[in-house]
Amino acid sequence: MTRAIPDYPFEQPNALEPPREWAETRATCPVAHVRMPSGDVVGLLTGYEEVRGLLADPRFSRNLAREGAARMSTTEDGGTFSRPSQGDADIKEGPGHRRWRRLLSRAFTVKKMEAWRPRVQEMADELVDAMLAKGSPMDLRAALALPLPVRVICALLGAPSADQDKFARWSETLLTLTRYTQAEVDDAQAEFRAYASDLVERKRARPGDDLLSELTQITDSQDGRLSHDELIATVVGLLLAGHETTSNMILKMTAMLLSERECYETVVADPGLVPGVVEEALRMDALGGVGIPRFITEDTEVSGVPVGAGSTLFVNLHAANRDERKFPDPDRFDPRRENSAQHVAFGAGPHFCVGQTLARVELQVCLATFVSRLPELRLRDAPEDLRVREGISAGGFEDLWVTW
């Protein structure tokens, strides 16, 4: 009997527990076949070594805007990985990506991102002050998890943080799986690009002390200068990734800790555990979205399973982070786990997240602020009642109500 191909993403018992299929596919099938919301069938990788291996292999493409590649979403363009965008293609892979990454990496060094920690702390304290003044219960997404990363990335880029509602709306629309129509996606993309283009022009004309101003001016013999379209793609990418993923992770980390209250109380008692807790929260994220695609450009094998050229594979980073072959007793939250930071929540290989140090700074500041200023923080709702954002490739919560 032919086994039915399951729909993907898989259903979860609740927002904080992984789908049972993660463990099943790791144990039985290095390359599982699943059906995307578009109806297209792709291969799915859930093992740690398989995921790292594929992401690190430069032969395979992350660009699905090519003939034969699977579509992800129900929109006609196939979703964010298939969506052609001027300038974006130039920095997605190959020499263009390496050049773009060399230029951008100068601004995202560990030293530079750590220098932002006091400023991030000031922003977090200001938002918590407002929370305390208003009183509980409070939707943590609206009160802190969304505005903090927006303020940080806007300060870094030199964009006005007052536009956070626009960024949130555009980002959610562009990350649609089933929620938005093609017309809504087209409108959001056009508005986002127009906004970014105007910002680039203003920074080029009147440079300030910010990353975008630096990128409009920087040039050297090896890398040249980013074109206008490349700068637009950079602004859109940083504004989207710089707030969407971090905002989601602040909420998921908080929900994880508060759902198992002794975990939160452990950090309250020992704030020195904050860095380890952040890494373990990143590793144990069960609501991480659909994953990352690769278009297979030549015949290959994954753990002995043949994969033909022209196939599309998705790697589920968060399923890989639960691989017991890498992380013993993977479903146990252990802030003292020695290898937690070896997770692949930020990807691996040439496309490893350039902003991962900044994200870690923001998450550490948030958690340290919560445990010092809100030691009685609690979830208002049970884990099974938390509202998940449906139809969006990035996952996350619609809101997260807390009390103290």
UniProtKB/TrEMBL annotation:
Residues 72-85 have a biased composition (Polar residues). InterPro entries: Cyt_P450, Cyt_P450_B, Cyt_P450_CS, Cyt_P450_sf. PROSITE patterns: CYTOCHROME_P450. Pfam families: p450 (PF00067). Its cofactor is heme. CDD domains: Cyp158A-like. Keywords: Heme, Iron, Metal-binding, Monooxygenase, Oxidoreductase. Residues 1-21, 69-94 are annotated as: Disordered. Coiled coil: none annotated. PANTHER family: CYTOCHROME P450 BJ-1, P450, PUTATIVE (EUROFUNG)-RELATED. This is Cytochrome P450. It comes from Streptomyces rugosispiralis. The lineage of its organism: Bacteria, Bacillati, Actinomycetota, Actinomycetes, Kitasatosporales.
